[in-house]
Design a protein that fits this description.
Pfam families: Ring_hydroxyl_B. Helix content is about 25%, strand content about 40%. The chain contains 4 helices and 6 strands.
Length: about 170
């Protein structure tokens, strides 16, 4: 016997599958360090945020590890791909898994998905694990889905963080 609730019917919504595919595509590109292609997944004016405070919502006024608009995101990509920064020369290899997708909001123009991310990385003969709650706001009002906002809430965000050499 099947019980249908509002929680289980989200996957039947035709807007959800393209948003999920975009999030999975993003993870694939990041693990392969295809940062220029990753940048093309973003909507103009899109924000990439890694807040320090776990419950922060006012990212513009809060202290963040990352608060990147288009310009800053492209500068970060340049540092990671130029070979001139320590983050580029000691870049970690990563494999990330995203799961536990929950639709937070949906309308005709956008979908907001929350998920869990577990990232396993390897750098300088050391393997490490990072976990985060991730929220993607995906724009659906153009010819293809685009990331409007990505917020990565690391579970250890209030601890000291070493330079990563990769994007979350």
């Amino acid at each position: 016997m099947s019980v249908e609730t509002a929680e289980t019917t989200h996957l039947a919504d035709a807007r959800i599958a393209p948003a999920l595919e975009l999030v999975w595509r993003e993870a694939h590109l990041l693990d392969r360090k295809q940062y220029e292609e990753w940048d093309r997944l973003w909507a103009p004016g899109g924000l990439y945020v890694i807040p320090i405070e776990p419950d922060s919502e006012d990212f513009e006024s809060a202290l963040n590890m990352v608060y990147d608009d288009d310009r800053m995101r492209r500068m970060r990509i340049e540092r990671l791909t130029s070979g001139y920064s320590i983050s580029a020369t000691a870049a970690a290899r990563t494999v990330r898994t995203l799961s536990r997708f929950v639709v937070q909001h949906r309308d005709e123009e956008s979908v907001e998905l929350c998920s869990a991310q577990v990232l396993v990385g390897h750098r300088r003969e050391e393997t490490f694990v990072l976990a985060a709650d991730v929220t993607h706001r995906i724009r659906l009002d153009g010819p293809r889905p685009l990331i409007q906002q990505k917020v990565v809430r690391l579970i250890n965000s209030t601890d000291s963080v070493n330079s990563s050499g990769f994007l979350l």
